[in-house]
From TrEMBL:
Residues 104-227 form the DUF2520 domain. This is DUF2520 domain-containing protein. It comes from Polaribacter butkevichii. InterPro entries: 6-PGluconate_DH-like_C_sf, DUF2520, NAD(P)-bd_dom_sf, TM1727-like_C_sf.
């Protein structure tokens, strides 16, 4: 059995703790980042705190193998004097929303093969998709994830605002959202692109712009130009 110490009480730590409790392969203990005076020993210490806190928290931990869970931070952000690694799960986590770890990619990094195998074993105890990803690759993945997740979700928010303003149920768009997401399983994003920007339908684009407020117009114009530049 592998002993795991989770440092943090946020979304990622909460979901990880729940998952580890369900497997016999892991003995998990969880503390908050404020409880670092008496740190339990563990085979693996996972720091699941905000990016800005990784350096400070890790500097206070002397356990033999310490990893963080950040997509945007290098392995060198860890300031512990012992072995280092990264246990990054490429997924969006929200409290109260259950996640299926079997569908989540685990992006793992360690400084030696033994530690890499340990991270793989821990990830395998709760999930199926495991990848050896270095810090530079993970940084690129994290930026890509911001585009496909955070920015896309902001577009959902804008779409919802437009629907609300015009008294249309946002749920009408749900099937379209689902189809758009599922389509890229069989088509490249470039081939899946549709809409007035691709068609260069200037009349429809003008009608859309006339409907939007100034901030929405800025975003619409930038994205439309980006789409058109990508197909020229």
């Amino acid at each position: 059995m592998i002993s795991v110490l989770l440092v943090g009480k946020g979304n990622v730590a909460t979901h990880l703790h729940t998952a580890f409790l369900k497997t016999d392969a892991i003995a998990v203990t969880q503390i908050s980042s404020r409880e670092l005076k008496n740190i339990p020993k563990a085979d693996l210490t996972i720091i699941a705190v905000s990016d800005d806190a990784i350096a400070e928290v890790s500097s206070k931990i002397n356990n033999k193998f310490v990893v963080h869970t950040s997509g945007g931070c290098s392995i060198n952000e860890l300031k512990n004097q012992t072995r280092k690694g990264v246990f990054y799960m490429l997924q969006t986590f929200s409290k109260g929303k259950e996640v299926n770890f079997n569908e989540i990619p685990f992006c793992l990094e360690a400084t030696n093969k033994k530690d890499q195998k340990l991270l793989d074993k821990v990830a395998k105890s709760i999930g199926k998709k495991r990848y050896e990803i270095n810090s530079e690759q993970r940084k690129a993945l994290h930026v890509a994830a911001v585009f496909v997740n955070n920015f896309t979700n902001h577009f959902y928010k804008i779409g919802n605002d437009i629907c609300t303003e015009h008294h249309v149920p946002f749920e009408i768009l749900h099937p379209l959202i689902n189809e758009t997401a599922s389509k890229i399983a069989s088509l490249s994003p470039e081939k899946a692109q549709t809409g007035p920007a691709v068609r260069k339908d200037s009349k429809t684009i003008k009608n859309h712009l006339d409907l939007l407020n100034k901030e929405q117009q800025k975003i619409y114009k930038i994205i439309t130009k980006s789409i058109q530049n990508s197909i020229d």
